[in-house]
Design a protein that fits this description.
alpha+beta, 2 domains, 8 helices, 22% helix
């Protein structure tokens, strides 16, 4: 099953993505007598994603596809939600990316950092290069969305606590970071520095997570791509490792690292391509140019 958040009459609402278009969960509730949460984060927090997916696969799909849908090209997509409790980022998780930055890739433990939710934007929203930075980069990543409160998760049980996966574009003020590695939080935390969506893809939709191809795309050209299997720390390890650090909560996001960052400038269009996922696309403006 694939879920998305779109704007309808000024409000952001959770939807099911079908072969015929986008169906708001409010319409599913009204027309089919269901009672699903209509806010994506609430849907995840209540544990309803798995319940909804089971219902959809067993009996709901045909019923939902008979509800008049909003055409995908007419829908205004938003970030899946705007207030996760935690966003974990993983630095240098592909050896190629570490080499690109002339850094040594971590080999024993992941290079983790956290981002505030004020960085969040959604599909089509502008990435804003701040006036403090003269070299900002964008990085396509696979995002893991936690579906249940959990602690000390075993590697083999990681999918039991995952609601789904999504596309992510993470930004870094690289020139600030290069001044001093202790500036990482600031370099990662400017407004608009984390885009995610447009779809939450449930685990049953993915045949083999390790074979997913992740690509950073700039102005229609693939800048770098790699497969999840080439991560130093794969998603199962990341979920287990971070759940041992702190309790993970529904809606928490782990952005698993990029094949390579790309320097972005005013007027660029950045995309995250993951095979089998809807692309995530964001235009870029430089506040030093536009202000």
């Amino acid at each position: 099953m694939r879920l998305a958040t779109i704007r309808v009459k000024g409000e952001e609402t959770a939807t099911i993505v079908t072969s015929t278009g986008i169906v708001p969960l409010k319409e599913v509730n009204d027309k089919l007598g269901q009672n699903w949460a209509t806010d994506m984060l609430e849907l995840i927090s209540l544990g309803q994603v798995r319940q909804l997916n089971n219902w959809y696969r067993i009996e709901g799909k045909e019923l939902v596809e008979n509800i008049p849908a909003i055409a995908k090209e007419e829908a205004v997509f938003c970030p899946l939600y705007r207030k996760p409790r935690k966003i974990w980022g993983i630095g240098l998780n592909y050896v190629d990316h570490a080499a690109d930055l002339a850094e040594k890739a971590p080999s024993e433990e992941p290079a983790s950092f956290m981002k505030p939710d004020t960085t969040i934007i959604g599909p089509g929203e502008k990435i804003k290069i701040p006036w403090q930075s003269h070299k900002t980069t964008a990085e396509s990543e696979l995002g893991v969305i936690i579906g249940t409160e959990c602690k000390d998760v075993k590697h083999e049980d990681w999918l039991d606590v995952v609601a789904g996966f999504t596309t992510v574009i993470d930004m870094t003020a690289e020139d600030i970071l290069r001044k001093n590695p202790r500036y990482l939080t600031r370099a990662k935390s400017f407004d608009t520095f984390f885009s995610f969506g447009p779809q939450l893809v449930t685990p049953d939709e993915i045949e083999d997570i390790m074979k997913l191809q992740v690509a950073t795309v700039i102005n229609g050209r693939i800048h770098a791509e790699n497969v999840v299997a080439n991560m130093t720390f794969p998603p199962d390890f990341l979920v287990s490792f971070h759940s041992q650090v702190m309790r993970m909560l529904p809606g928490d996001i782990i952005s698993t690292g990029t094949p390579r960052a790309v320097h972005i400038t005013d007027g660029d269009v950045v995309e995250c391509w993951i095979k089998g996922f809807e692309p995530l696309i964001n235009p870029v403006i430089d506040l030093k140019v536009t202000n």
